[in-house]
Specification:
Blueprint lengths: L2 E3 L9 E4 L2 E4 L9 H16 L7 E5 L5 H13 L3 E4 L1 H12 L8 E11 L5 E10 L2 E8 L2 E2 L10 H11 L6 H4 L9 H5 L7 E2 L2 H11 L11 H11 L12 E5 L24 E5 L1 H8 L4 H27 L3 E5 L6 H10 L6 E4 L10 H17 L1
Parallel strand pairs: 1-4, 4-5, 6-13, 8-12, 13-14
Antiparallel strand pairs: 1-2, 2-3, 6-7, 7-8, 9-10, 11-12
Helix pairs in contact: 3-12, 4-7, 7-8, 8-10, 9-10, 10-11
Length: 384
């Protein structure tokens, strides 16, 4: 029986998963305007009309305020089927797995790298290392968080992310002078000293923004992903210095993976939960180096090369601890061709099979397929 999934907020496209085949509705764009929101339900109805039988469930993002979530809940209630919430980054990883035609529950490692997605702890995630086995996932690791001074505004103004980095590294007194063109710069230190005004995020997308602002490429964005695009373009025409392992740090802390409990073995057999740990990847040293970079092009190239090396080291560490040797690359940051190519080259060298998006977008446009894949496994688990 088919499963309908309604995606999330950005680049919304619903998906009908049936007989291991996916059919997408139109990409309606971001659900930040009335026209796009009004189109969600008709697009879902059009997919339902093509289903071979009654749908088993309607899947959606965990975020309760997304219009797509509200439509999914209402639609599921009318159809008398479950509405299944799927964590954003779990869905990103699952979408790539499904695109590769893998519908079993063999564990994989997943890098989910994007701008933002609601985590199971209510925080803003976006730089995640996951262990995924069908309906189950474990947050094995995440990037060291950055503060979001001004909340959502920081996602549109990269200078704020750069300021957050400088403040976290004890160099907050530089912010007012470095970003003197920004009226709020002189007072941002006071904002950053009040955590309630600055939610934390593990987003890799915000790390890209901080890097671009520290290198003087973009302080305020006028178009989507403007800072990250500028950083990639500059890096593509520049030569990176040799990568220094001092530019990142991986720290290990204990964690609780859920009621089923982690395995007590260092390398658990396939299918068991991974060890009780969290691996934090700290990129603050790299960003701090960019703050002092004399050449923006060389700094942009350094950021990309070091980021790929750090992510590879992170995955290799998780591979040793979990026994998983398949890694899935997902999330909007994988639109960056330099980063994607570097990871596809470096991860096999540390013993990993690499799965990446092929025809589908690695970002939110393909997210609904992952939601449906997870929902399929969740329903199967309840039937056994």
């Amino acid at each position: 029986m088919p499963i309908l999934a309604l995606g999330a907020w950005f680049k919304h496209a619903a998906c009908l998963l049936e007989h291991d085949r996916a059919q997408f509705g139109p990409n309606l764009g971001d659900l930040d305007n009335a026209d796009a929101c009004r189109s969600v339900e008709p697009a879902a109805a059009a997919l339902l009309a093509q289903a071979d039988g009654r749908v088993r469930a309607v899947a959606h993002d965990l975020h309760p305020d997304f219009h797509s979530t509200r439509v999914a809940a209402a639609l599921a209630a009318r159809l008398g089927v479950p509405a299944i919430g799927v964590q954003h980054h779990h869905a990103h990883v699952a979408a790539v797995i499904a695109e590769h035609g893998r519908f079993d529950a063999r564990p994989v490692l997943g890098l989910a790298l994007d701008g933002v997605g609601l985590g199971t702890d209510g925080e803003a995630w976006g730089g995640e290392l996951l262990w995924v086995a069908g309906a189950r996932f474990v947050r094995l690791g995440h990037l060291r968080p950055l503060r979001l001074p001004g909340g959502d505004r920081a996602a549109r103004e990269p200078w704020r992310m750069a300021a957050a980095l400088l403040h976290a590294c004890g160099r907050g007194d530089e912010v007012a002078h470095r970003f003197s063109r920004q009226p709020a710069a002189a007072l941002l230190g006071q904002v950053l000293s009040r955590p309630a005004l600055c939610p934390a995020t593990s987003s890799l997308g915000r790390h890209f923004d901080a890097a671009a602002a520290l290198l003087g490429l973009c302080e305020v964005m006028q178009t989507e992903a403007e800072a990250a695009v500028a950083l990639e373009r500059l890096a593509a025409g520049s030569t990176a210095p040799p990568v220094s392992p001092a530019d990142w740090q991986i720290t290990q802390a204990t964690a609780t993976h859920g009621p089923s409990g982690p395995s007590s073995e260092a390398s658990p057999p396939v299918g068991e939960l991974p060890p009780d740990l969290t691996l934090q990847l700290d990129l603050h040293p790299l960003l701090l180096c960019l703050a002092d970079a004399p050449d923006a092009g060389r700094g942009a190239a350094r950021f990309h090369a070091t980021l790929a090396a750090a992510l590879t080291d992170w995955v290799a560490t998780a591979r040793r601890l979990t026994g998983c040797d398949t890694v899935v690359l997902s999330g909007g940051c994988l639109h960056n061709r330099l980063l994607s190519a570097a990871l596809h080259a470096s991860l096999p060298a540390v013993g990993c099979e690499v799965l990446g998006a092929q025809r589908l977008s690695p970002g939110d446009a393909g997210l609904a397929l992952g939601q449906a894949w997870v929902a399929l496994h969740q329903l199967a688990a309840k039937e056994t």
